[in-house]
C-alpha cells in the first residue's frame, strides 16, 4: 500500500510582496531619454542630430556627453577609418570569417571575433588609453606634458614592456596607417 509523502508544513513567513517597479526604478542612464514620440541623446533630440552630425560626432557624444570640437571629430573619424578590417591576419577577423563560413549568423560570427580580444590581440587600444590616463594624472599633478610622457615611457621600460601600447604593429614594420594619422 503506497502512502503519499507528508505535506510540507505551512511557512511561518508571509509571502513577500514586491512593489511594482517601473523601468526608471531599476534602469537609469544619462545617455538616452526615450518616451513615445521622443528620443534624446545626452539632451539632444534625435531629429536635430540626424543629417547634422557625423558618426564620429555621435560616438563622441554618446561616450563623452558632449559634441566634439571639429578637430576632435576629425581625429576620431580618422581613427575609426583606420580601425576598419585590414586583413585576415588578425585572429579576431579570422575567427569571425571562419564562423561565418560555417553558416552561423552575423551575431554568432561577431561574438566569435569579440571573444578573441584580450591583452595580446586587440588590447593595445585599452592599454594605450591606460597610458594616456597615467600621463594625464601626472600632468594634472603639475608635471609638464613632455616630462609626464617621458616618465610614463620609462615606467613601461622598468616593468619590462618593450612596446609602447597603441604605437607600432606586430605585422607591419611601418604601419601604413601611421603616416596619415600623424598628419591629423
Can you describe this structure?
The protein has 184 residues and is mainly alpha-helical. It has three domains: 30-84, no CATH class; 86-119; 124-171. The chain is 47% helix and 5% strand. It has helices at residues 23-26, 46-49, 55-64, 70-82, 91-101, 106-114, 124-140, 145-158, 178-182, and strands at residues 32-35, 38-41, 44-45. The protein has a three-stranded antiparallel β-sheet. The longest helix is centred in the last third of the chain and has 17 residues, at 124-140.
Shape: extended
Number of helices: 9
Mean pLDDT: 84
Q: What is the alpha-carbon Rg in Å?
A: 26 Å
Number of domains: 3
Annotation, overall tally of beta strands? 3
Please report the distance between the alpha carbons of the first and last residues.
Answer: 88 Å
Parts with pLDDT < 50 across at least 5 consecutive residues: none
Strand content: 5-15%
Share of helix among residues?
Answer: 40-55%
Largest sheet: 3 strands, antiparallel
Provide the structure class: mainly alpha
Strand order of the largest sheet: 1-2-3
Helix and strand pattern: HEEEHHHHHHHH
Layout of strands and helices, then pairs:
Elements: H1 23-26, E1 32-35, E2 38-41, E3 44-45, H2 46-49, H3 55-64, H4 70-82, H5 91-101, H6 106-114, H7 124-140, H8 145-158, H9 178-182
Antiparallel strand pairs: 1-2, 2-3
